[in-house]
Amino acid sequence: MKIASVAEIKSQFSAFLKATADGPVIVTRNGRPVAVIVGVQDEEEIERLLMAYSPRLQAILEASRKQIREGEVLSHEEFWAEVEASRASTGRSRKRKTGRTVGRDPPREEGL
User: Fold this and answer.
1) Between the CA of residue 103 and those of 51, 91, 98, what are the distances in Å?
2) Of 82, 87, 91, 98, whose CB count within 10 A is highest?
3) With a threshold of 0.70, does the pTM exceed it?
4) How many folded domains does the chain comprise?
5) How far are the Cα atoms of 56, 65, 69 from residue 62, in angstroms, in the given order?
6) Per-residue pLDDT for the chain (112 aa), expressed as one digit of tens each?
7) Are 25 and 19 in contact (CB under 8 A)?
8) Structural domain harbouring 5
9) Buried b (16+ CB within 10 A) or exposed e, 21-34
10) In a domain, 100, yes or no
């Protein structure tokens, strides 16, 4: 991890971008950290970074943590029962990779 002032970053930006391959670069102003330059490898990594700073996602995560702390959780069976009930009420079903529909019996041939 490197640390550099805003002035250093401005004068050698390209070099600091290359340095992010080895780790984050902390940018300082008057000796205090003000930003971090982080190298990314692909679009998925960019998405993860942006999601980490999403106020909406953070609110959802905090509400979930609060429910867990207060014991407001579903068992595995309760969760899947609610998923199936939701699918049944909306008439939606999920296809497996095999092309079979989850949650519904396959069609039966007569005489079997």
Assistant:
1) 32, 11, 14
2) 87
3) no
4) 2
5) 10, 5, 10
6) 899 999 999 999 999 999 999 999 999 999 999 999 999 989 999 999 899 889 999 999 999 999 999 999 888 999 999 999 999 988 766 555 555 444 544 444 444 4
7) yes
8) 1-39
9) eeeebebbeeeeee
10) no
